[in-house]
Predict the 3D structure of the following.
Amino acid sequence: MRFQLTEDQLALRAGVRELLARRFGPQELRAAVDEPGRLDRALWRELGAAGFFALRLPEAHGGVGLGLPEAVLAFEEAGRTLLPGPLVATHLAAGTVPGAATGEAVVAAAGNGLVEWLEQADVVRGDAAGAVPLRSVDPLTPLHRVPAAGTVDPVAVLLTAAEQLGGATRACELAVQHARTREQFGQPIGAFQAIKHLCAEMLVRTETARAAVYAAAVTADPADIHTARLLADEAAVRGARDCLQVHGGMGFTWEFELHLHLKRAWVRTHRAGDATESEETLAAELLAQPI
Amino acid sequence: MDLAYTPEEEEFRARLREWLREALPTLPPKPSPDDWPGRRAYDLGWQRMLHDAGYGDVHWGASPTVRLIFLEETEKAGAPYVGAGFVGLLHAGPTVAAEGTAEQRARWLPPILRGDEVWCQGFSEPDAGSDLAALRTRARRDGDDYVVTGSKIWTSHAEVADWCELLVRTDPEAPKHRGISWLAMPMDAPGITVRPLKTLAGSAEFAEMFLDEVRVPVANRVGAENDGWRVTMVTLSFERGTAFVGEVVACRRVLRELAVEARKNGRWDDPALRRRLGRLNAEFRALWRLTQWNVSEAELTGGVPGVGGSVFKLRYSHARQELYDAAADVLGPESLDLDRPWVLDRLSSLSYTIAAGTSQIQRNIVAERILGLPKGR
Ligand SMILES: Cc1cc2nc3c(=O)[nH]c(=O)nc-3n(C[C@H](O)[C@H](O)[C@H](O)COP(=O)(O)OP(=O)(O)OC[C@H]3O[C@@H](n4cnc5c(N)ncnc54)[C@H](O)[C@@H]3O)c2cc1C
């Protein structure tokens, strides 16, 4: 059993991280917030060229031919940097919707009563009839409500969990950085246990979620995927809130990126079914298997 | 990244399963929780059976993955827990194996593996719990012996132990972490008084120990004189790193039993309870994955488990308490009846956030040693 990242997986993660740092750094993030609702098509095509959408498409069909574990690592990085756009929907459309694999097309998906990025999409999968725009809580995710409840692809649940994991990881890093440098009462606030323990709990939640998300990527088992979603949602949402607390007043500002993590984490908790469904599925699973 | 076991590991699993199927029915009946001599005999008998079948050294002789498979399969089969063998097999033994001399390994390891000798852990003192380095039990050198005086507390299984891994202060002048040594104290030495303490679960799980001029040979010291704190960190990393693996499997079984019970008594129809059990299922599935992750990491880095054990211990100890609280809600008023299953477990789960380092101390460790946050004043 080698339940650790391989050399190739480490290289892939580093490559995606490098691409995103170059193409979607703090400046681009700021610009995106200032122009809500606009999707950077050039970046979308670059992601396509880098294989982000075609990652799991077989090589025979022009894809990269990798598996779920690699996709999870790429989406984790996307979550870390708050990369906007219907990433999961477009990734899932690669190979079926023309242009999705290369990033020429932007694909949105209607499911669970919500559609992300409807107006920017070239193609909408699922039933988006009667869509009504919302004033989205997340400035980086335009939302529409739709009456129809679509079916949920388990891979969408898993990739969303991977994004949550990335967001949770980033929130923990931000909190720790701040706790090490911000001084009050003559010492770094990270020396105070109230802060130290918040940070420790953030790491514990993140690392537990990581094990669950990676395991689900390896097995693709439905119960593992529901587990990953519950743990990753918790790590992302609570992580962002704790990070805000560690930053004090600064955490409550529009300027600081943290609120974007919290808001995106909330959006993702509604993307592909919700926690109730996962809890009920996992409860039923307890009775399905022998003791 | 995979979760596949090698053919050799799968073969080990199959062989072990086969053996468990035949061996378990031959076990004598379980002694009552308060019968410590009976529990000692029972637990040692089980270790002896393992030893004779070639599984005696699995806790530290085998690779981390084989150990994981062993703990998973024995727990799934309902085999006895290490019990009285806990300290010897899961932390004193590994510590002696890692830090002891050839003579010390030859003297202490085989009897642990054969199920002949029981160890206990004499670390905590009345004034040195979380602040373990504040310990005051003194060891004065006298010829080839240390003469030890002081007291220890919360010593689990002390009254049935043959040996004690004992922390003593050998240099009272040195800074507190520097003057400590790690000794193996024979429990039949003159001057030792053991007084059992009753736990909130009503059992005599641990004890107080009074040490009055107890002579311990200098040859029983593991590691250099005054280097005991480093040796202790090795011991604690074993205690936190791998000691709870089998219990995660046990918790997953309990959870399934709870679901069955809830369906039987009608509480399953309550969506809030169902969802809570579903969430606990996610929790213990994730803890199992975290265990596999940590074991794989230990395999790559070779040997002593890292601080990741603190991450696991923190999450697990709270999850275990939530599990038995959920059990109480499944049982309803019957959860007040000590004769019902899970009620004693609920009580004993309360110690998990305290023993082997409290949750607060684990958070300090995670924050300071993994996240690099500064130490407080
Ligand atoms: C069932 C059981 C079995 C045990 N078995 C053994 C054994 O076999 N051998 C052995 O040596 N010991 C054993 N122990 C002892 C155990 O290791 C200690 O109880 C534990 O380390 C806590 O120490 P304490 O009880 O002195 O509590 P204290 O250290 O007094 O702690 C009291 C409270 O203060 C908090 N606290 C203390 N310091 C800090 C800090 N720096 N920051 C934040 N909070 C802090 C603690 O978290 C706790 O909540 C056992 C304990 C139990 C419950």
Notes: The first helix of chain A runs from residue 7 to 23. Residues A 193; B 120-124, 129-130, 154-156, 205-206, 351, 354-355, 357-358, 360-361, 364 surround flavin-adenine dinucleotide (CB under 6 Å). The first strand of chain A starts at residue 107 and ends at 111.
